[in-house]
Write the structure tokens for this entry.
Amino acid sequence: MGAQKGFARTACKVNNPGNGPTTPVGIGPAVTPVRPLRLDVRPDSDTLGGLRTESIMHPEFPQSQIIHLNHAAVGPWPLRTAEAVTAFARENAVTGSLHYGAWLKVEAATRALARELLGAATASDVAFVKNTSEALSIVAFGLPWSSGQNIVIPQGEFPSNRVVWIKAAERFGLEVREVGLPFDDPETALLAACDGDTALFSTSSVQFATGLRLDLERLGAALRRRGVLFCVDAIQHLGALPFDLAAVQADFVMADAHKWLLAPEGIALLHVRPELRERLLLQEYGWHMLADAGDYSHYELAEAPDARRFEPGSPNLLGVHALHASLSLLLETGMDTVAAEIEARWMHLHEGLQRLGCRTVTPVERGRHAGILTFAPARGDTESLYRALQERGVLCAQRGGGIRFSPHFYLSTEVLDCALAAVAEGMRA
Ligand SMILES: Cc1ncc(COP(=O)(O)O)c(C=O)c1O
């Protein structure tokens, strides 16, 4: 595993992190002393069973108390993101919005990074919205539907990519078709469900529970030929795999920042194919989405022609500063490298779990998974193994009838081996 080559291989025991020390909440002293806010997070050298943890941790991720295998749920922030947020907080406290113009430059730079991540044509094609669910709703309640049309989605989708279509169907007289996903050839099954009345096909790029990854390029080409709109919930994809918008031919792509993108909740990307932007009837209005945003004396109501039309009010500049830092780490590392490192960690975990007798639920074939690895325990039930892993500081989830591990590029082999040791112990317990 490239990034961590050279680390000593050592057995380890993971401590139960408990809930950690808590900060009392309440009314503080009248004058809070000014403290330096630069983070100084250093891994405890003994929390991973006496290992010199600095040697097995990526410097951006000083996770001394946990083994983070939960990037498909809520990812951690790299240190540079924590520092960017801290610096932004301090600046707000000390100089208020004096440098608002500079903050807008960070926003523009973040949009440029998001463009690069998506492979979009221009940064102004990318909107910052609150979350994936909001982005899906912008599409579902904005399209000019005709009664009798249908929408095709896979069975087992995350609720956000289901409820929006069902509610839109109720409102506009549509049908929602939910199609089972055979692992061997899900694309054929999905495309077979589309017919002359299918207006839109929406899917997660990577299924949140099973980890099945769809062939977006194949779907995109077939849907474009048939004139069916293609909506991709890329939250389990962006930050784990490269994305090539032109090759995928998606009409709508959205993803929140708090999973594989390693940034906070509350900021997400939305890309709408420019030719379709004006077809979406807007549900939200405000000063910021007007063509003449910033000219408060001007009563022109025209919407911005670019993706800013999906951003009604003041931007989430705190989220923007964080996302900028997180995207800079991913793009500096390179998404091809990130994907290759994730694949190496995925295979390492899969092989280790197989040795323990566990069954990998997620398809093993390269190209059929991304970062999610769901497995069924060899012995005992999923619930008790999940509890045992939580007690041992292994962050993961119960999904798809098993345990979901979701490793990111920065984890060392030693840390993964600690997680495997915790699985072995957990199944004995
Ligand atoms: C596939 C998928 N889509 C959407 C969501 C929810 O995203 P958000 O909270 O950004 O709306 C999740 C969260 O787990 C998810 O896994």
